């Protein structure tokens, strides 16, 4: 499978965020459907070091206003020595763009998928199974799925921040951080 299979999985998804712009869209069932198609392509092509593929981020929460950008966590089995090289070959072979390694800002190894330059459709977050980062991603997603009041409060915050920072993604992300940290338990 190649980039074409992944591109087909994104057909009619309503996803796509132009770099440098903070845009939000109302939730749509197409996001979950797109994740299932994308996850199918990923699972069918994944190297042995991949243990799980999870839908994370705001598009994984039904009813939540979100940047129309699919966030996917790829969880790696512990003790897989060649994982970085295997994952890089796998995701690059699907047309993913390497976006950076884990560092003081980013808790994971990151890849992005674009069908046209500067318009991101997906972020792929590569993390170890059992890592605190993966646990936090899943706990925050599950909390928002379970609590309409938390989901509404988060949506209101995101809308305010998008209005205040329409061309400053870093300010938008920083503005959400206190809400996220308070609700993920760390």
Automatic annotation (TrEMBL):
Pfam families: GrpB (PF04229). It comes from the Bacteria. This is GrpB family protein. It comes from Agromyces archimandritae. The lineage of its organism: Bacteria, Bacillati, Actinomycetota, Actinomycetes, Micrococcales.
């Amino acid at each position: 499978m190649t980039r074409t299979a992944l591109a087909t999985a994104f057909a009619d998804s309503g996803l796509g965020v132009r770099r440098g712009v903070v845009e939000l869209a109302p939730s749509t069932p197409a996001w979950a459907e797109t994740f299932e198609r994308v996850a199918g392509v990923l699972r069918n092509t994944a190297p042995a070091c991949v243990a799980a593929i999870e839908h994370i981020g705001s598009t994984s929460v039904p009813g939540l206003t979100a940047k129309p950008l699919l966030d996917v966590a790829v969880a790696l089995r512990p003790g897989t020595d060649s994982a970085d090289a295997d994952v890089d070959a796998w995701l690059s072979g699907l047309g993913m763009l390497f976006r950076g390694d884990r560092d003081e800002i980013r808790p994971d190894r990151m890849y992005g998928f674009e069908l046209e330059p500067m318009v991101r459709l997906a972020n792929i977050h590569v993390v170890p199974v059992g890592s605190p980062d993966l646990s936090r991603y899943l706990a925050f997603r599950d909390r928002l799925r379970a609590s309409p009041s938390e989901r509404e409060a988060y949506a209101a915050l995101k809308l305010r921040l998008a209005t205040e920072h329409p061309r400053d993604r870093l300010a938008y992300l920083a503005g959400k951080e206190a809400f996220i940290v308070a609700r993920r338990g760390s």
